[in-house]
Specification:
Layout (H helix, E strand, L loop, with lengths): L2 H7 L5 E2 L3 H7 L3 E6 L11 H12 L3 E6 L21 H15 L14 E4 L1 H4 L4 H7 L6 H5 L2 H10 L6 H4 L1 H16 L1 E7 L3 H14 L5 E5 L12 E2 L2 E2 L9 H9 L3 H10 L5 H13 L5 H14 L2 H15 L4 H6 L2 H7 L5 E4 L1 H6 L1 E2 H8 L6 H9 L3 E3 L2 E2 L6 E2 L9 E6 L3 E7 L1
Parallel strand pairs: 2-3, 2-5, 3-4, 5-6, 9-15
Antiparallel strand pairs: 1-6, 7-8, 10-13, 11-12, 11-14, 14-15
Length: 430
């Protein structure tokens, strides 16, 4: 496959240095993307860059994932309105280990192939580089005028930052430029890729190489991913959508992709999956015939969830989704871990009641009317129960005064009450 053509039809090329495509057609190219290790998990904002590396490897080239262990201690001003918190060495080491484990879902690090992926950490070559040596060997090659002209610097200086731009941040593009020089000299890396906000930093690296060794290197950036309405991609009311299940459950992750708009689904399925062009075009055409089936969103959610988590996690997420909207059974509920249960029923009314009520055993009518106000009156509950309209943990309540005890609790803590077809209530034993 032709790497640049692959990226172009997927909508993943923003800017490219002249000669980049010719280089990729001529030889197996080593290319890198930098990842800032500010957390111990990647989020879906990182996915476009990671998918660039994935497509690069599928096209026969060699990907390097550069973890910014050293630059992560400083913070990149690009696209930011304030300086980042600096990280200590132990935190960075932990974050790097976690990120490598996540990247192995996307890239082949283990095979004997000549283009197997490598993980590199710029802390390894920066930790013993003294300030004086850096100033003498690297700093002299790039002028302040050149660095000042970069958009990332200008935006911060022209009012986007409350406190201006620190010297620490100002040096970031030079440090990132040195990464490119180091990888060019030690890994024969000739291409740096990243988001369009990184163009200034990437071209500084290319210029540094040109001025120090005279080497020919190239740059390619992808667009910053946004939603069709102009909103920020990957943000929800509760924050980032993470790749780690500890921060975003597979169910919630699946739901994010399932709920994107039609216009976004058409773009995202090209960017965030490895499905071939003809299959994607057929899916889009089929989806447009009957948008109500949300076929595109379902396939997108499946592909990304399987890639980031597993087939089993995807299947569990689909089953969990059916609990609210389908004919799920008590068995479906019992399969849910606590985090997923709370994610599924996030937003439904919740009532905390004393655990003693369950330990001693209580009548459902007393629990649902007096202890938790699921029903306005005992008469309302009696009438609805007799009509088969009340369920506890997805099982019809046989009698309105049926006994409820600790054996009925999900995860030894929760009771799910359903009134009619669509009204759910979560009772929590405290």
């Amino acid at each position: 496959m032709n790497f640049v053509e692959e990226l172009k039809w997927r909508g993943m090329v923003h800017t490219m240095m002249p000669g980049t495509e010719e280089l990729l057609e001529r030889e197996m190219v080593t290319a890198y993307v930098g990842i800032d290790p500010t957390a111990d998990s990647l989020h879906i904002g990182h996915l476009c860059g990671i998918m660039m590396l994935r497509h690069l490897q599928r096209c026969g080239h060699k990907p390097l994932a550069l973890i910014g262990g050293a630059t992560g201690m400083i913070g990149d001003p690009s696209g930011k309105s304030q300086e980042r918190n600096l990280l200590n060495e132990d935190t960075l080491r932990h974050n790097v280990a976690c990120i490598k484990a996540q990247l192995s879902h996307f890239l082949d690090f283990e095979s004997d192939a000549p283009n197997k992926a490598e993980l590199v950490n710029n802390y390894d070559w920066m930790k013993d580089f003294t300030f004086l040596d850096f100033a003498r060997e690297i700093g002299k090659h790039i002028t302040v005028n050149y660095m000042m002209a970069k958009d990332s610097v200008q935006k911060r200086l022209n009012g986007e930052a409350r406190d201006g731009l620190s010297f620490t941040e100002f040096t970031y593009q030079l440090l990132q430029g040195y990464d490119y020089l180091y990888l060019n000299e030690h890994k024969n890396c000739k291409l740096q890729m990243g988001g369009s906000d990184q163009w200034g930093n990437i071209t500084t690296g290319a210029e540094l190489i040109r001025r120090t060794t005279g080497g020919e290197v190239y740059a390619l950036t992808c667009p910053l991913i946004t939603k069709a309405d102009g909103g920020k991609f990957g943000k929800t009311e509760s924050g980032n959508v993470w790749l780690s299940r500890e921060y975003t459950s597979p169910y919630k992750f699946y739901q994010f992709w399932l709920n994107v708009s039609d216009a976004d689904a058409e773009r995202y399925i090209k960017i965030f999956t490895s499905l071939p062009k003809d299959e994607i075009e057929a899916l889009i055409a089929e989806h447009r015939q009957d948008p109500g089936q949300r076929m595109l969103q379902k396939r997108l959610a499946k592909e990304v969830t399987v890639m980031v988590h597993s087939v089993e996690d995807y299947e569990a997420a689909v089953e969990a989704s059916s609990i609210l909207f389908g004919k799920a059974t008590k068995d479906s509920l019992l399969k849910l871990d606590e985090a997923t249960l709370l994610d599924v029923f996030n937003g439904v009314p919740q009532y905390e009641v004393s655990r003693n009520l369950f330990e001693e055993g209580t009548k459902a009518v007393d629990l649902f009317v007096d202890a938790a106000q699921v029903f306005a009156s005992k008469g309302e509950m009696r009438k609805l129960t007799q009509g088969g309209g009340v369920s506890v943990n997805k099982e019809k309540l046989a009698a309105f005064d049926q006994s409820v005890n600790t054996s009925d609790l999900l995860d030894n803590k929760y009771l799910l009450v359903q009134k009619g077809k669509k009204n759910y209530y979560l009772i929590i034993a405290k």
